[in-house]
Amino acid sequence: MELHVAKKEKLKRTTESVLDNVIQTTLCKYPVDKERLTNLRVSSFPFCPVKWFLGLPTSTAKTREQGFHSTFFTEVGTTVHTVIQNYLKESPYVVRDWICSDAKCKHRHEFQVKPDKCEECGNPNFNHAEHKVKAGVIVGHMDDSILVARKKIRPIDYKTTGKSSVSAKGKLPHKSNVKQLEAYAAIKKSQGYDIDGWDLVYIVRDSAKPVYISCESYYGHSFEVEYPKIIKRIKKYVKDYKFVSSLDSRDQLEDLADLRHRKKAGEDKGSCGYCPYSELCLDKKAILAHLNSTFTKVKLKLPIILAKA
């Protein structure tokens, strides 16, 4: 096959140069999930109202742009979740939602081990689904839970990681991973379930080897002892979310700036190290200027939700 090129064009491209250019410069568009604004997502914990507000120009758009590396790690993580959940469904001890496979029934059996048969139609076959957690404005989906003893349940969360993170002292677990999983555990406990604790499961990408981190090893004490503190943190997240999501005046921006997680060097209330505004937050005037600029861009879309009692 003859390759046609412009007469003046010289063929200097290589596979490496073409691929590297795409990886470094190409942005793909993805639809924006509006529910991520109108609900407080557990995946946003530890919730920072300043970061949430500064992200509004992107999160209120119809689409968002994402680069290769971000998409790569997101898709790898999704694949790992799917594989583990597909295999773990064979265990009699996994707790999740089970949906009757009968097209006319589709009854959902929530947050339990797989039943012998559908309680509505008697069908013994089920499809599985992540359990949706709902508590007021809070919404999230749990990866899985394990029935570790009679009626005692431990929520678990799957995360992918690199070999270097496993070997580096103090690298794991990430604070945000803990804050999200402990919130799921605390919410289910507050809803009357006998929650025994939680376990983070990190899957090393290049070996598929799991690394387990229990709440007991992280806290140095039981989940029962930590539970009241977690509930207090969650209530603070809800309060901050209700404030920022109902914000509709520039006069409120100074109060918003005071809610930032990092006001001095070395301070980190959860995930400041990964936040693009981390250094900006050290200077209140600088963060206020940024908040004002963002307000100008999104003021016609405010408030995001109406203030609730």
Write the layout of secondary structure elements.
Blueprint: H1 15-25, E1 27-31, H2 35-38, E2 40-41, H3 49-54, H4 56-59, E3 63-67, H5 68-88, E4 94-100, E5 108-112, E6 126-129, E7 131-135, E8 138-142, E9 144-149, E10 152-161, H6 163-167, H7 175-190, E11 194-195, E12 199-204, E13 210-214, H8 215-219, H9 223-245, H10 253-257, H11 284-298
Parallel strand pairs: 2-8, 10-11, 10-12
Antiparallel strand pairs: 1-3, 4-5, 4-6, 4-9, 7-8, 9-10, 12-13
Helix pairs in contact: 7-9
Structure, described:
The chain is of the alpha+beta class. It folds into two domains: 30-61 and 137-301, no CATH class; 66-129, no CATH class. 37% of the residues lie in helices and 22% in strands. It is built from eleven helices and 13 strands. The protein has helices at 15-25, 35-38, 49-54, 56-59, 68-88, 163-167, 175-190, 215-219, 223-245, 253-257, 284-298; strands at residues 27-31, 40-41, 63-67, 94-100, 108-112, 126-129, 131-135, 138-142, 144-149, 152-161, 194-195, 199-204, 210-214. The strands form three sheets. Strands 4, 5, 6, 9, 10, 11, 12 and 13 form an eight-stranded mixed beta sheet that branches. Strands 2-8-7 form a three-stranded mixed beta sheet. Helix 7 (175-190) crosses helix 9 (223-245). The longest helix has 23 residues, at 223-245. The relative contact order is 0.13.
